[in-house]
């Protein structure tokens, strides 16, 4: 024991070295990215002070490389954008725009509000559309010391005719309105008067009996800082109505209907009942943080009555068999009947429905829904088809979901598919339900689906397994690890080889990280780069050990 106590602790092997390396790389990467984002944001703040387009004759631009030089598609001009310059101590990044007149042999610096962030090594191309456009994609930003780099993946367009920059994000929201003529098969853009909805997606859009178009809710995003977006779930409502003064004129009107409105949500489904009432089913309410997004899914049904400008929360009456029992109970024992059984005026208690869905990977998601008794249903509609209403009645209702498909036929509301999320997994549904809008008793199941049976493939099963193993190893008690490793025989071949690889990996860490990055690309996550680096290093080390062994023999 004394001899053992004097010994220094041996290395914990390649796994612990890899874990340390991962933490160090991850921490360093986060710090570097935060520093670069702060610097980029600072430069964008300076650019934001530009409020108008200015064109200033100037001498030739300062020295630079990795800029883009593009020929104007219609004029005898060259367009220079961006670039970098290194003076031996400091790196300078540019987002300046210069125009070179070929005929006049003169340069003009053009300052335009809202330009792309400073960059170099981007891709640029010009096209003749719209009076000429310069498209800019991606590129790189370097810190002043030239040691840190940020790679863009954004897309911008410079409208040469109007001299305006526009960022083309992965998402673009619109608020324009078009009509399509069924007679001429032609589209026409409307120019309604009055303030209308802000640009959005996923909103309710339906025709009212009065000939107006109702717009409700929707979803949109705004960029709050570099690579961070914040979502907004809209709950406002508008009517687009024909305006006085001639055909083809329309006007926006914001309305505030009474009644029980749907809670804030997006991804809901819409259909119109035969009596022109608008049905809204399901959806999701996203709770967004900078680093996470969690959604609460719904399976409730709301009705908008345009004639009364009022929202209703649909309430199911329950299966007919229960009502028959209540009537029999009332006839047999009228004195002992409860107030609820005799149709008393007291409101029934809210019903809380709790469902648990177990995903393939063992994740248990508890879905809770509170059904509020409003006593409000849909107005009578044409009699439903008997064959459809005789479908299997299991007492089940559609589970909470978003983006389901909705249709109404013969007074029956059909709900098909959709999706919900269980942890990091997305469950896509293929079940089918129907609800008699005239009876409003219960949902009937036409096609069942077990969400647990759906296959879900992770990005890389091997990586996930390896990550789980590493996390399990990290979670063990440190003292127990030390004791176990102190008792290990350092002369054992596997232990000795593990220590050798640990020393080799530590010594060549930066080399393998750089090599791995060049293979997987600049946009790959640090965790993936780390695993590739470890695999490459391990393969090289094993080959070297094998070569040495063969040489000795």
Approximately how much helix is present in the residues? 10-25%
Question: Overall pLDDT, averaged?
Answer: 76
Oligomer: single chain
Indicate the overall shape: flat
| Straight-line N-to-C gap | 38 Å
Number of helices: 9
Number of strands: 26
**Parts with pLDDT < 50 across at least 5 consecutive residues:** 3-10, 325-348, 357-393, 461-495
The largest sheet, given as strand count, sense and whether it forms a barrel, is:
5 strands, antiparallel
Give the percentage of residues in beta strands: 35-45%
What structural class do helix, strand and pairing data support?
alpha+beta
If you compute it from the alpha carbons, what radius of gyration comes out, rounded to the nearest whole angstrom?
33 Å
Major β-sheet strand ordering: 1-5-4-3-2
Describe the protein in words:
InterPro entries: Kelch-typ_b-propeller (IPR015915), Kelch_domain_protein (IPR052588). This protein is an alpha+beta fold and 553 residues long. It has helices at 2-6, 14-47, 320-332, 386-389, 461-474, 478-486, 493-507, 509-520, 526-552, and strands spanning 54-58, 68-71, 77-86, 91-101, 106-111, 123-127, 133-142, 149-159, 164-167, 177-180, 187-190, 204-207, 213-225, 228-242, 250-255, 258-259, 269-272, 278-288, 293-305, 310-313, 351-358, 364-371, 405-409, 412-422, 425-436, 443-447. Strands 1-5-4-3-2 form a five-stranded antiparallel sheet, with no helix packed on it. A five-stranded mixed sheet has the order 16-20-19-18-17, with no helix packed on it. Helix 2 packs parallel to helix 7, helix 2 packs antiparallel against helix 9 (526-552) and helix 8 (509-520) packs across helix 9 (526-552). Residues 3-10, 325-348, 357-393 and 461-495 have low confidence and may be disordered.
